[in-house]
Amino acid sequence: MKVQMVDLKGQYEKIKEEVNIGIQECLDNTAFINGPAVKEFQQDFEKYLNVKHVIPCANGTDALQIAIMALDLKPGDEVICPAFTYVATAEVIGLLGLKPIMVDVNEDTFDIELKDLEKYLTSNTKAIVPVHLYGQSANMEEILAFAEKHNLFVIEDNAQAIGSDYTFSDGKVKKTGTIGHIGCTSFFPSKNLGCYGDGGALMTNDDDMALKIRMIANHGQEKKYYHKVLGCNSRLDTIQAAVLKVKLKHLDKYSASRNKMARYYDENLAGISEIEIPARAHNSTHVFHQYTLKIKNGKRDQLQQYLAEKNIPSMVYYPLPLYKQEAFAQYVEENFSLPVTEQLCKEVISLPIHTEFNQEVSDFIISEIKNFFNQ
Ligand SMILES: *Cc1c(COP(=O)(O)O)cnc(C)c1O
């Protein structure tokens, strides 16, 4: 039996005709850069997210970098982000001469918490980058209130949670990525809304910010060959936009399939005492970019090895806290340590999850996990 972490082929087979037509159109028009599909996808995505501006760019890391460039911060300014995230979140902060302040996360939802924001706030703090890890929203109401009180920008790293809904205590619902000042996302192929190469986007409801972001992503120019600021060259290819236009129409269905697969794992694994199934944040829907278990009693690595022997792929997102990465040594004291992040790096394991639910494959994965735990 072939088990894949993500079944992109199975998904493609179902939308092949539509996708091929879209790509063929790009080839026929030879409009590879800024062709019509880019604007069309942008508008469809704005409507889907209910946000005023989507600015497509080349990848999710660029989106984060451009977002932070748009804040006009000064060297040495501090930006708070979680220590338990993909490297890109903190990398761009450092690259821009700013100081990433890596903080701990909640052990159930994997998101930044208020108590850590309070602990690490200084007079140099200028922004917070919450990450909606694995597919559900950080506690945005709390983060926004804190940011407002201390006059901070909020940049959402929404690379893993596109399509997720966050409900405020007054009942208002917003899509993740449209809640802070700027949202960033990635269309890397294995992301929930993935293209067939690299891609990314920024989201904002602020008209001035949108203009600035567009300018930065386009060599700092508003008018061709007149450059107001130093920018970069970050575009979404037309062919990728054509793929995304098709896949966006299926995104909610894809999220539902991922939830179905997650529930199936939940039902079958919840009874194993050394496994903690994913907790649900109470005010967010989950789009299960990853289905991530916590494995107790130090058995995570053994479980992963056992599964590998059975040809069942699994992944550890992430094995090393960012502050322990060589690249980030300059930002922390030698023995800096965050307890929850440390623990999660030892306990988490992500199982195959994607849009193509297959009962037989799921049962096989579950039965091997049960075998490992002698259940
Ligand atoms: C994938 C990812 C990114 C970066 O996206 P790329 O398109 O690969 O540059 C950033 N942050 C998080 C949390 C991600 O998962």
Automatic annotation (TrEMBL):
Keywords from UniProt, A to Z, are:
Aminotransferase, Pyridoxal phosphate, Transferase
Q: Known InterPro entries for this protein?
A: DegT/StrS_aminotransferase (IPR000653), PyrdxlP-dep_Trfase (IPR015424), PyrdxlP-dep_Trfase_major (IPR015421), PyrdxlP-dep_Trfase_small (IPR015422)
Question: Hey, what's the signal peptide range on this chain?
Answer: none
Q: Which CDD domains match?
A: AHBA_syn
An example of a GO molecular function for this protein is: transaminase activity
Q: Which Pfam families match?
A: DegT_DnrJ_EryC1
Q: Does the keyword Transferase apply?
A: yes
Q: Which family does it belong to?
A: Belongs to the DegT/DnrJ/EryC1 family.
Q: What is this protein called?
A: DegT/DnrJ/EryC1/StrS family aminotransferase
Tell me what organism the protein belongs to.
Chryseobacterium camelliae
